[in-house]
Amino acid sequence: MSSSYSVPGLSQDDAKRVAETLQHRLYALLDLHLTLKHIHWNVVGPNFIAVHEMLDPHVDSVRAMADAVAERIATLGHVPQGTPGSIVQERSWDDYALGRAPTQEHMAALDRVYTGVIGDHREAIAEFDALDLVTQDLLIGQVETLELYQWFVRAHLDDGGEAAG
Ligand SMILES: [Fe+2]
Fold first, then answer.
1. Of the four, 28, 31, 33, 154, which is 20 to 30 A from 87 by CA?
2. What secondary structure, in 3-state letters, does the chain show?
3. Does the reported pTM lie above 0.90?
4. What distance in angstroms lies between residue 53's CA and the mean position of ligand 1's atoms?
């Protein structure tokens, strides 16, 4: 499953731990970009075109994140798993539940998806603090963008009332 090399300055044991955590982030990003397209196809009602068109650039961006994570796994001398069967087998969350549904229902469900993905990315960032700062940097950049996208989603759910906090 793995090569005899890692990157300079990173032990093979540490590289293996980083690659294993990254593999779970890869499953999450692959699942997310497929789910974003599913929402793009099934959203209906007021704000349809805004949400429909908002999602495509997010799909492209999250696909690029998955690509970067997979290539980091390969760079570390391990084998990125990107097959649909492996995602379904290894993921710890349920399949996205909504089919055709109004924008607000999809945005509420997508908000929960982002909370899960971002929370797990942040946990990986904390773990990499003592393992590999280069991989950590990759995920930090991704979280900034994912949090921006979650705000786009949450803005649809905001009724403009009193701000929290
Ligand atoms: Fe489309």
1. 154
2. CECCCCCCCCCHHHHHHHHHHHHHHHHHHHHHHHHHHHHHHHEECCCHHHHHHHHHHHHHHHHHHHHHHHHHHHHCCECCCCCHHHHHHHCCCCCCCCCCEEHHHHHHHHHHHHHHHHHHHHHHHHHHCCCCHHHHHHHHHHHHHHHHHHHHHHHHHCCCCCCCC
3. yes
4. 8
